[in-house]
Every structure is written in C-alpha cells, then in structure tokens.
Amino acid sequence: MKTEKEKMLSGELYNALDEELSDERLHARLLTKELNDSREDEVQKRANILKDLIPNAGKGLWIQPPFYCDYGTNIYVGEKVFFNFNCVILDVMPVKIGSRTLFGPNVQIYTATHPLHFKERASGLESAKSINIGEDVWIGGSAVICPGVSIGDRSVIGAGSVVTRDIPSDVFAAGNPCKVIRELDNSA
To answer: Does 114 participate in catalysis according to the annotation?
Structure first.
C-alpha cells in the first residue's frame, strides 16, 4: 500500500493532512520564515538556509525574500537561477527549473490542484501535476504557472500572464490565458 507521500509524488489523489507530509511542510515553513527574516547582509546565512530548504539546487541560486514554498525538496534548480521578491512555489510534485532562468516579482508556480467534482473536492483529497521550465527562460512579474505546464528553453513569459498550457522554446508568450505572441531570434 502506498504512503500518502508516494501517492502525492505520483500524481494520485492524496491526503495533504497526512502526518509525514504535515511535518515536511512545517520544516519548509520554518526555513522560509528564517530566510524571510534574514537581513540583506547575511548572505552566507541565506545560502545555508537555501541548501537545507532546496537541496536540489545548482550553484548560484539567488532568492530575494520573501519567498514561500510547500516542501522545497521537490524543487530542482539549475545554476544561476534568480527569484525576485514574493515568489511562491507550491511544489507538491517536482518543479524543474533550468539554468540561468529568471523570475520577476510575485511569480506563482502551482503544481497543486484539486478535483473538479465537488464531492471529491469536499473529501479533502488533492493532487498535483509537475512543472518543467527550461534554461535561459525569463518569467515576467506576477505571472502564474499552472499545474502540468512546460515552458521551453529561452522563452519569455510576459508579466501578468497565466500559463495554462505548454509554451515552446524560443518564443515570447503573454496573456490570460498565455499564448505565443511571436518567435524569438535566439541564434546570436
């Protein structure tokens, strides 16, 4: 029989109030509180907190507090990734972010979702879909990345966009819902 965590990580309906999951979220909440309360000149302290909070991160991860996440351990980050103020990652399932990707302020990344049928939703069970964001991507401020979305390498997502479906590589996409506006010439 699968644990609730195993169900969660496989995209099945799971009970988020499970003790193991609750303990892991508490650990992340305490670390994000510590990160968010740290001072700008406490660079090494922030780096140590991030190593514990997001152990699957490459070198050069920079997060400008405040920052919030569910678990941290389900976030996989390449090198030299930057998050501006007030970003949120609901990392119920894996969130994979390529190297040199930039996030504007208030970007929201949601893997978590809930059943559409009200009786299933009322049961308290929920599920999630993983998110993949390529290398050299720029996500504009206040964009929302919805469950199950992939964004291709070198693409730019306009500020305020709501990304509800996959975005290919080398494009500028924007809007609600987000759609490709034009291709980018990234050959140089």
So the answer is: yes
User: Do β-strands 125-128 and 112-113 pair in parallel, antiparallel, or remain unpaired?
Assistant: antiparallel
What's the pLDDT tens digit per position in 27-58?
Answer: 999 999 999 999 999 999 999 999 999 999 99
The verdict on residue 188 lying in a domain is no
Q: In the Cβ-directed half-sphere of 79, how many Cα atoms lie within 13 Å?
A: 1
Neighbouring residues of 115: CB distance < 8 A, sequence distance ≥ 6: 13, 121, 123, 125, 126, 127
Say which of 5, 114, 129, 179 is annotated catalytic. Answer: 114
Say if 187 falls within a structural domain: no
Q: What is the CATH number of the domain that holds 114?
A: 2.160.10.10
* Amino acid identity, position 87: C
